[in-house]
Amino acid sequence: MGKGDAETAARRLRLLQAEFLEPTRGEPGLRTGTRTSPPAPLHLGILDHMKASVEEVIAHTRQQAPNASPIPAEAGDVYDWCVQQTPHLDGERQAIRDALIFRQSLEHAIAMGDIKAVRKLPCPGCGCYGLLWRAGAALCPYDRCTDSRGMANRWSLAQLAHHHVAFKKMLKTHAT
Ligand SMILES: [Zn+2]
Q: Which domain, by its residues, includes 26?
């Protein structure tokens, strides 16, 4: 189960919240000039992104657990809440839940400009590392890892998340 992944997703969501939605907070006078606020459209985009993410987790949780406890007050707590409310799911549905959480974790990282989060994952096609984030997709850098047209294989965050969860599960199965 992706306990660590849920924690990472929550940490990234809180970071987004702190960095992009409360830019005026912090040490006045200390780093004036270096800490410039991103332009308003970015704030709105981040706000929409966070709202949509939290709503997706809540909707998914309620669908899988109609008797789920009330949603947590803090946005960053939804991942823990989601996992806690759905221990009854079978392996396949747990994997879907975990992939959703991991995909959102990647989305938060990308929203922060942290493309290293993608680079650290193995390519689902060939297993090599060093995926490049280009135009909303992760491109495999290995020149033999191509699709039927000979183009570099491209992966969405959802595909990377699905692969990550399946890979972790496979490692776990083999370890026991
Ligand atoms: Zn590849």
A: 1-114
- Distance, CA 92 to ligand 1 centroid (Å)? 25
Ligand 1 centroid distance, CA of 112 (Å): 25
Query: For residue 145, how far is its CA from the centre of ligand 1 (angstroms)?
Result: 5
Number of domains present in the structure of the chain: 2
* b/e code 46-79 from CB counts within 10 Å (16+ = b): beebbeebbeebbebbeebbeebeebbeebbbbb
Q: In this structure, are 135 and 65 located in the same domain?
A: no
Whether residue 24 is found in the same domain as residue 81: yes
Neighbours of ion ligand 1 (CB under 5 A): 123, 125-126, 140, 142, 145
pLDDT, tens only, 94-121? 999 999 999 999 999 999 999 999 999 9
120 and 104 in one domain?
A: no
- pTM value is 0.85
